[in-house]
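Aim 2, interim progress: modelling of the FE2/S2 (inorganic) cluster-bound target.
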Amino acid sequence: MKSVKVLTKKSFEFEDQDFKRGEPKSMIPSTEESAKTFMEIITLVEKLSEDSDLDDQGLLRLLDYLDDGQNATAVRAHLTELAHQRRMAVYGNRVFLRGLIEISNYCKRNCVYCGIRAGNPNADRYRLRTDQVLESCRTGYDLGYRTFVLQGGEDPTHTDVFLTSLVRQIRDAFPECAITLSLGERSRESYQALYDAGADRYLLRHESAEEHFYQRFHPGMRLEDRKKCLEDLKDIGYQVGAGFMVGLPGQDNTVLVEDLRYLKTLDPHMIGIGPFIPHHETPLAEQASGSVDKTVDLLAILRLMIPKVLLPATTALGSLHATGRELGIRAGANVVMPNLSPLEVREKYDLYDGKICTGDEAAECRQCIQKRIENTGFAVDMARGDHPDWRN
Ligand code: 5AD
Ligand code: FES
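Predicted structure of the complex, ligand included:
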């Protein structure tokens, strides 16, 4: 067995140039006024850690300070350290791997930010056949994966008959593996049928918990439907994932506080958050990407708010920064989802520009991510990695 580099305080203190995030220059702010503010914010971070919550006003104050407070860097370092400690207490230094299979980029929806939106006539559409999905699972299984995540747009040909048959075949072929679906909004009956066929988990980011903000980016969709889906999924017995993007145009901290509050109340098993990255064929083509630091701050805040949550360091974070996923892992993230899709469709599942891993074989991604995780002082865990409270 490969020996695991133990994460010491020293290794956590950013030896590598790439990890220059949140390094405390000096904990002593320059003026008396800023010293007072600084101490107030540090107290908020401590309270967040102790209570696993802060009131909305406190969350807003913290987010505002992290944006442009005089000593945001020192606060960030403390927040990251507390989130890291919490993750070590709950999960230790292990990072779960999930194999992601992108089964279709047909989508009937028109999410304004998304490269595979129905309104993009230049998307090169594909959908995998059942045998192709099974082959990807086989490749993944041989590489050690014990969770398969089937993700796709809302493809109208993905009927319950097709999908339940697919899930059943995966369940039969890989009885000890977890099957995660990420296929958008469906009826409760459909979620139930897929669960009965053998699916264990479902990812459906809520995208935004602020009504107006949600509507701006999701024409023809309703936040209440989204929330209903998440409640149905939970009720049926799935391990459920929600989440949102960081840095969509116009997303101020009050909007983010609504997201944090919604997540705290929903208490999902998994939370996917990543930076918004523009796609050249969408109405947001000219907009700026979300901030890497802010995404990582929010990962740390969520680790403290919902300590047992399974929290991926997302591909979008890795696409925006050379070591973005490592930064996420250092701030409390404990899941990575390397790509298992057949090489010929990788580039077509094109949600945003500059997505990493589109040219790499599944085996290459597997090795690459293991090295990255170990170089960051953590260890890969290839078990199913269920939520500690699931079915307990
Ligand atoms: N940038 C970053 N993430 C995106 N997603 C969709 N489009 C983009 C984009 N342009 C995210 C959404 C979706 C998940 C599968 O990918 O949050 O839920
Ligand atoms: Fe389909 Fe966004 S347009 S997932």
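The pocket of 5'-deoxyadenosine (ligand 1) is lined by residues 113-114, 205, 207, 245, 274, 276-277, 279, 316, 351-352 (CB under 6 Å). The first strand starts at residue 94 and ends at 97.
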